[in-house]
Amino acid sequence: MKKHALASAVVFLLLGAAAYGALFVAPTEKTMGTIQRIFYLHVSSAWTGLTAFFICFIANLIYVWRREPRWDWLAVSAAEVGLVFTTVVLVTGPIWAHPVWGIWWTWDARLTSTFVLWLLYISYLLLRTLVEEPDRRALFSALFGVFAFLDVPLVFGSIRWWRTQHPQPVVMGGSGSGLEPTMWYVLLFSWGAMLSLMALLLRARYEFEAVRGETDLLQREAEGM
Amino acid sequence: MKNLNSVFAAYLAGWGIFFVYYISIARRTAALRDEIERLKNALNRGK
Amino acid sequence: MSLLSNTTALLGKELRTEFRSRELLTTTVVFILVVVVLFSFTFDPGSNESRRFAANLLWIAFLFAASLMLQPCFLREQNNDTLSALRLCVADPFAIFAAKLTANTLFLLLTELLMLPVFSILFNMPVFPVFGQLVLVLFLGSLGVSIVGTALSAISAQARMRELLLPLLLFPLLTPVVVASTYVTVGLLDVAPFMEWKGIGFLAIFDVVFLTALWLFGEYLLEE
Description:
Chain B is mainly alpha-helical and 47 residues long. Chain B has one helix at 4-46.
């Protein structure tokens, strides 16, 4: 219990430091002004979400190979946590867009791709609720998870090349273009803080899955009596 | 600093989502642990 | 027996089964027509812009039709309990997938080619000047839909709510195919037609990636 509390405290501090950096350390951006500071939360969440989905992908592969339930537990945890981070991206996007362009949603390449990514992993979780037998559920969702992750670069690529013909507000103003060094440091630190949060959430979710496994076992034993 | 409200709103929304998720996991895990205790007691009584 | 001969034999079975009754093909063609008519009510087909919408509409209609057409793919085997027999017949389980996805691609392509003249008339889009290129994009797009759809239909056949599950899993995965195919098709059917070869290349890459993935993981989809 104490280790948990300590870890949570560390993550909380890192997040606080990252927010401080975003609000006070990072220089104000020329074109958009203060509102641009959402960028540090928005982009670091996006990268962390993708990291979580990558962990899900690896867990899926290992499960197909080894068939040990703990890899399935890791996969579903990583998918759910990734989905949470992706939700934050989709929520902060409109909060950013509205003051700047007066509209809540822009079909800009990154936001659209993130939406599709979100739908992909929602489907992954829905698939899991619709297959009853646990081993089959784990196997099928692992295979779908592999397909889904392979699809991710194709989704981002196709939308970037063929869905941005019309002039549209670009929510991130072309990442990397004209980012001062200080901005890079704040962004990377934010990402680090987000990764620590991801690790915390992953461990908590994985534990829940493990405990659920134990409960199912005990329940079957109790019913067998 | 105009639009600072929006920046705060974004951070609050983001952290809010993480917090709600973390709490929901913690509560469900606690509920499961109680269930395990209950099942273990039931099994012990049965033996 | 080699993979190729197994696949060809199974493909023959798939084609014979379908052409005996032709129920899948006829139902799919009629379905696409119904969808097209319904969609035409949502925009003004007479205006100049409608050419762009019509080209996109083509692909939406095909996608919906495909998601329905792919349902029986493995469901039929499951209902008749023939899957284990199939597995025993072939050395490489990939032959089963190869045969089914080839058959599905052919069926899809056939319905699309049947629909092209109808589209051409309904929306005043000349398709014959660019017919060859259209067939190419239709083929590569349909192949992508079939590869992913055949794999997913093996999953949905064993899940609950399969009629909703298959489209739910299929459509997000096929986003790259839809984006690229519609762009190429819109270009070909434009007033000043042009060919987006980058899109064709992209579709080919998509097909290769998922065909390889299916080849590597297909046998697990068929596990008992």
